[in-house]
Amino acid sequence: MSSGPVKKDRQFRPTHNCIESTPPALSININVGIILSLTVAGQDRAAAITHRRVDLTMVDEAGKAGIEPDVSVVIPTLNAAGVLEPCLESIRGQEYSGALEIVIADGGSTDGTLAIAEKFDCIVVGNPLKTGEAGKAAGLKAATGDVIALIDSDNILPDERWMARMTAPFSDPAIAGCEPIEYTLRPGDPSLTRYCALIGMNDPLVYFLGNYDRMSVLSGTWTGLPIEARDRGDYLEVRLEADAVPTMGANGFMVRRELVELLGIEDYLFDIDVVSRLVGLGHDRFAKVKTGIVHLYGKGLRTFARKQLRRVRDYSYYSSQGMRSYGWSGQKRRGIARFIVYCLLVVPLGAQALEGYRRKPDSAWLLHVPACWITLVVYGWGFIEARVRPREQRREKWKQ
Fold first, then answer.
1. Among 34, 68, 249, 333, fewest CB within 10 Å belongs to which?
2. Burial level of 264, CB count in 10 A (0-12/13-18/19+)?
């Protein structure tokens, strides 16, 4: 394959368990009103971190010698017994020669989560702050691997060689992190999970903003941002710029431990902030690996609405505390306006769903219109609530 730069809209033909030779898309956290008016705090903290040289010799030399690097899989949990076992089975079933440890950061589960973790010989650490972001930070502190894999309890690795393919790009010392290029579509999964795999994101607003990071059937590409990319065969090598960072960082994202430690992670690790902060430090090359990952997002629209509310509340609250750094305020207002107009008119959303069905027939496209409407209403309410009293989503009765 050519090693020259390719345009963002150039298609490739996936070689592994991909949706098909179509699209990319995303996953994200956001608030309609906030991105219109809020200047995200926390960028000063990232800017204050000096550019430090990191010794990655061991990881790089191991990759060149064909040795797979040691990996720490970090999984935050809170009453995740309903989804955790297939996740851990897929990790323990990997054909991988490097050391592979699983760190569970538990927020006080009262179901069978901890018993399942013990069954699969996981390292368990406490997460008194309960949130997934706090769990990732707690898990990172306990991790010992050269590479950190941020996998959620509702993820499933699609095949036994997933880990090997995902770590292969780290043989290039310029690669800071890797991420699957799509969500794996499985016919037997619930309709909401299939819908998110089809559009390539968990938040339909991001499609209109263009900063998604997984293959989307609607667009036929993995992001709507103008990003320099080179096809390296099994992965795309992408170079990110500070004003064009997709919402990378979760659901199978992998990063060199030495680099993420440069960020001075304390109580919270906000996944999409990690990539934007690394880019700000000059670590701007990442790999979009031509494989997928299963994300069991939920079974219906009630779950979708609950997760959207959690997303907007958490983002609003932590932004008000100066703890977020991803530049949502720099996103295109035209995309937000287009999303609102499409929701109000309904017909354009229906046309998108029909086009998606034409490209990839699936009854899950019926969720497109209501999912967009729920997002508009929930984010609108979240914007109003944030203006009055920003608050973190409560986790007392949370479960997967």
1. 333
2. exposed
> Cα separation of 380 and 206, whole Å?
15
Cα 359–chain centre separation:
24
d(CA 213, CA 224): 8
Phi, psi (rounded to 5 degrees) for 220 = 75, 20
Nearest to 155 by CA among 178, 129, 176, 183: 183
Cβ count within 10 A of residue 384: 10
SS3 content of the chain, % helix, strand, coil (to 5): 40, 15, 45
- Three-state secondary-structure class, residue 277: helix
CA neighbours within 13 Å on the CB side: how many for 240? 31
Higher pLDDT, 210 or 399: 210
**Residue 256 β-bridge partners:** 147
CA distance 340 to 391: 25
CA atoms of 19 and 58, how far apart (whole Å): 35
Tokens found for residue 146 = 């050269």
* pLDDT for 7 beyond 50: no
Rounded mean pLDDT, 84-92: 98
Q: Could you tell me the sign of the dihedral formed by the alpha carbons of 138, 141, 144, 150, in that order?
A: positive
Estimate to the nearest angstrom the gap between the alpha carbon of 147 and the chain centroid: 17
R_g of the chain computed on alpha carbons: 20
CA distances from 266 to 27, 128, 133 (A): 24, 14, 11
- The answer to whether residues 217 and 22 touch, using CB atoms and an 8 Å cutoff, is yes
pTM listed for this prediction: 0.81
Enter the tokens of residue 182. Answer: 């799509």
Q: Would you say 286 and 252 are in contact if contact means Cβ atoms under 8 Å apart? A: no
Summary mean pLDDT of the chain: 84
In sequence order, the β-bridge partners of residue 214 are 25
**Nearest to residue 132, comparing CAs of 162, 148, 154, 111?**
154
Strand intervals (E) in the chain? 5-6, 71-77, 100-106, 123-126, 147-150, 155-156, 177-183, 228-231, 235-239, 253-256, 285-295
Contact indicator for 217, 199 with CB cutoff of 8 Å: yes
Nearest to 100 by CA among 125, 133, 75: 75
Going by C-alpha positions, the residue among 300, 11, 265, 22 that lies closest to residue 150 is: 265
Distance of alpha carbon 400 from alpha carbon 182, whole angstroms = 22
Strand 228-231 and strand 5-6: the pairing is antiparallel
